[in-house]
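Consider the tokenized backbone below.
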């Protein structure tokens, strides 16, 4: 018969090549079992991943959507703040330019007064310079006040002489002693006037 070993029993009557076939079949069976185990582990992993995705899709997705909305709102607020800042800076720059131009015009008012005084004394040579200067300043926003005959307005006129009236009518400007000017609708210098009333 054959020899009997603790681990392996070999039949002497069997074909010697059959033992090799048995080992090969056993190896193939082990490989198939390992592959099946691997497939089961992959299926479990995929199932776990699907469970996590479902959890994200369920509860965590709403949390993520809320965070997204918060970030979007914050972005819109920052964008609006920046737009407001940009508009405010542009407005401040325009106001600075206007104040600088206004200061130059205020500095030129004594020159206009001197030209008017020279014209009042008959110096006609000054008239072209005066007219050119006034034209340029009027293009920039200068307006000359002509208060004669108007009702006295303390925001536009500075009364330096007063003539009593016969009746209690309103106070009226009789004469302009120094020209007043507006710069872009704002009082640059009030007119110095003589009033009656």
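A designed sequence for it:
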């Amino acid at each position: 018969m054959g020899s009997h070993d603790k681990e392996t029993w070999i039949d002497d009557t069997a074909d010697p090549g059959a033992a090799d076939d048995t080992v090969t079949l056993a190896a193939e069976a082990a490989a198939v079992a390992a592959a099946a185990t691997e497939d089961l582990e992959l299926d479990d992993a995929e199932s776990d991943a699907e469970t996590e995705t479902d959890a994200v899709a369920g509860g965590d997705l709403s949390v993520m959507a809320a965070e997204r909305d918060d970030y979007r709102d914050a972005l819109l607020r920052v964008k609006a703040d920046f737009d407001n800042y940009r508009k405010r800076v542009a407005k401040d720059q325009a106001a600075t330019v206007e104040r600088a131009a206004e200061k130059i015009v205020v500095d030129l008012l004594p020159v206009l007064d001197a030209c008017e005084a020279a014209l009042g004394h008959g110096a006609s040579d000054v008239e072209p310079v005066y007219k050119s200067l006034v034209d340029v300043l009027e293009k920039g926003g200068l307006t000359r006040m002509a208060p004669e005959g108007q009702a006295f307005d303390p925001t536009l006129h500075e009364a330096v002489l007063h003539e009593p009236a016969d009746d209690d009518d309103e106070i009226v400007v009789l004469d302009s002693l120094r020209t007043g000017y507006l710069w872009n609708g704002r009082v640059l210098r009030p007119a110095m006037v003589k009033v009656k009333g």
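The two ends are 154 Å apart (CA to CA).
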